[in-house]
Amino acid sequence: MMFLRQILNTVLVYERFNDTINHGRNGEGIEMNGRMMLITGGAGFIGSHLTERLLNEGHKVTVLDNFSNGKIENIQHLLDNPLITLVKEDMKKPKKLGQIVNDSDMIFHLAANPEVKLGETGPKTHFEENILATFNLLEAIRKGGTAKTLVFASSSTVYGEARLVPTREDYGPLMPISTYGASKLACEALIAGYTYTFNLRALILRPANIVGSRSNHGVIVDFVKKIKANPRQLGILGDGHQEKSYMHISDCVEAIMHVAGAFAKGTQKIDIYNVGSEDKITVTQIAKIVSEVMGKPNIKYAFTGGVEGGGGWKGDVKIMQLSTDKLQRTGWKPKYSSEQAARLAAKALMRENARAKDGTNTA
Ligand SMILES: NC(=O)c1ccc[n+]([C@@H]2O[C@H](COP(=O)([O-])OP(=O)(O)OC[C@H]3O[C@@H](n4cnc5c(N)ncnc54)[C@H](O)[C@@H]3O)[C@@H](O)[C@H]2O)c1
């Protein structure tokens, strides 16, 4: 019986994954009049957690992803839920986006290439995956003509090397130092322009470093991989004094739900919120946490020295902490500090690695 159910699930997941649009098990189709949530990048790290949370709240969710970085494993455990619709679509060359957007009330736009380091070698990727994809989404909204609420995952990198830390939402001028940050700022500008010109309200969120299960990029993931490969020495990019804010994925999703919920009820055309924890920690502290969690507390650190004043790479903002005053004025505050978030994330990644080794599901 168990075996049969497994086969049935595999077939359903396969069908969903291969169909351009799959309307769910009972074939109800995309709701034309019901409230629908669209999550672009919904098979990615943050997107899959947000999808889970929205489904738990009873919302109908369309997950759109081209699976360039997202994984079916991230959402596989959700695919039996009749409220979910999975669409495989590349937002750079959209085919069904117009229809999907028309059928959605609230759009969480998370699809992007999230790798800051890529900027040195591949600015075109940021232009296409981030700016072009966002432009295509905005055009789909404009052409649809009906009122939409857009929640956009921007980034703390839009601030560049801010002179004021913790950095507030009204800080300026915004001078990103990576092409990733530049692409996010360009998206913000496009969204603002469309918001004032067309039938759209937009909430821009600027998250700090988000960490936790299903993440496949960033410093904690790098350190886990490096320590596994060489448990005697850990190479650390930069001078070790880079200091940043880390937020646990559970706090991030709660913050999104809280602020997006409040924004949806309001009437403001556009608003911006930082999404981060209340403190920051150094990359050396992160190394210490990860090596402790992996049972290698005495590992030797080898610092590369870094570029331009000790950053990890060109485009790496050395000191980043976001002011969370505006977020907290809404009555919400993060549960975890940066250190707690990093520790929880390292533990989750270790569990995932162990499950991957066993061949059991990682979600
Ligand atoms: N993780 C962080 O620390 C962090 C911090 C600040 C901002 N953000 C932003 O939050 C969003 C989600 O980040 P994440 O860490 O979950 O990254 P992720 O790579 O796990 O998720 C992004 C998803 O978008 C999909 N995607 C990329 N290009 C696409 C395209 N052209 N069409 C359709 N789907 C596409 C990918 O397959 C992936 O599933 C991104 O916009 C990222 O820039 C992330």
Layout of helices and strands:
Elements: H1 2-18, E1 21-22, E2 36-40, H2 45-56, E3 60-65, H3 72-75, E4 84-88, H4 97-102, E5 106-109, H5 123-144, E6 148-153, H6 179-197, E7 200-207, E8 209-211, H7 219-229, E9 233-236, E10 243-244, E11 246-248, H8 249-265, E12 270-275, E13 281-282, H9 283-293, E14 300-303, E15 319-320, H10 325-329, H11 338-358
Parallel strand pairs: 2-3, 2-5, 3-4, 5-6, 6-7, 7-12, 8-11, 9-14, 10-15
Antiparallel strand pairs: 1-4, 10-13
Helix pairs in contact: 2-8, 5-6, 7-9, 9-11
Bound molecules: nicotinamide-adenine-dinucleotide (NAD).
Task: Provide a descriptive summary of the structure in words.
With 363 residues, the chain is of the alpha/beta class. The chain has a single domain, classed as 3-Layer(aba) Sandwich (Rossmann fold). The protein is 40% helix and 17% strand. The chain has helices spanning 2-18, 45-56, 72-75, 97-102, 123-144, 179-197, 219-229, 249-265, 283-293, 325-329, 338-358, and strands spanning 21-22, 36-40, 60-65, 84-88, 106-109, 148-153, 200-207, 209-211, 233-236, 243-244, 246-248, 270-275, 281-282, 300-303, 319-320. An 8-stranded mixed sheet has the order 1-4-3-2-5-6-7-12, with helices on both faces. Helix 9 crosses helix 11 (338-358). The chain is globular. It starts with a helix and ends in a 5-residue tail after the last helix. Nicotinamide-adenine-dinucleotide (NAD) is lined by residues 41, 43-47, 65-70, 90-92, 110-114, 129, 133, 153, 155, 207, 209-210, 218.
